[in-house]
Amino acid sequence: MRLLCSVVTLMAWAVTTTPLSAQDADELRWTPSKSMEFGVVQQTAISPDGTRIAYVVRIPLIEGEQSEYLSHIWLVNSDGTGNTQFTRGKISASGPAFSPDGEWLAFSSQRSGAEGESEGPPRTQVWAISINGGEAFPVTDAASGASSYQWSPSGDRIAYLMRDPDTDEEKAQRREKRDPIFVDQNFKYNHIYS
């Protein structure tokens, strides 16, 4: 019996220490382009009753010379069943947060559809969707975008931060490409809204 254990151990050692061919080594070597083949799980949220988990998957998109990341929210039961992609499309969604009753999922996204959208780059807003599915709808319409949001304990409101919006003069300067960034001037502050 002792001899058999020694032989098996020796065989296992020989198999695991066999040098790889040059081709195998190249396939296993980590490169920047290889890193673009994998998605990354980020940002998790657990439902108030503990039965569901929302999480963000960030995947690379490489098309020709363009490369960027796209993030979407997935929902899974806490026992690992029912894994479902919850947001879709070409616009990222992140920061999932369950409502206190667990029936709604809020997230942040720069998707279009918020009322009063103005010129300029897309702004991040808070969106909500029923955990039973359906269409997401904008919860905020913050002039300079919403960040750091939180459900109220009753679940009837969402509080968020919004940076001071740009003045008309600042918008004109940006349109005319006269908008250098001065680090020690023109401070913008965040204010809380709900």
Strand % is 35-45%
Major sheet = 4 strands, antiparallel
User: How far do the termini sit from each other?
Assistant: 73 Å
Count of folded domains? 1
The CATH topology label is Lipocalin
CATH structural class:
Mainly Beta
Q: Strand order within the widest sheet?
A: 1-2-3-4
* Portion in helices: 10-25%
* SSE string: HHHEEEEEEEEEEHE
* CATH A-level architecture: Beta Barrel
- How big is the Rg? 24 Å
Shape designation: flat
Structural class: alpha+beta
The average pLDDT is 83
Number of DSSP helical runs: 4
Q: How many individual β-strands?
A: 11
Poorly predicted spans: 3-18
Can you walk through the features of this model?
The chain has 194 residues and is α+β, with helices and mostly antiparallel strands. It has one domain (39-193): Lipocalin (Beta Barrel). It is built from 4 helices and 11 strands, in the order αααββββββββββαβ. The strands form 3 sheets. It has a 4-stranded antiparallel β-sheet with strand order 1-2-3-4, with no helix packed on it. A 4-stranded antiparallel β-sheet has the order 5-6-7-8, with no helix packed on it. The radius of gyration is 24 Å and the shape is flat. The model is unreliable at 3-18 (pLDDT under 50).
Short description:
The chain is α+β, with helices and mostly antiparallel strands. It has helices spanning 2-16, 22-28, 32-35, 168-175, and strands at 40-46, 52-63, 66-77, 84-85, 93-98, 104-109, 125-130, 137-138, 147-151, 158-163, 190-193. The longest helix has 15 residues, at 2-16.
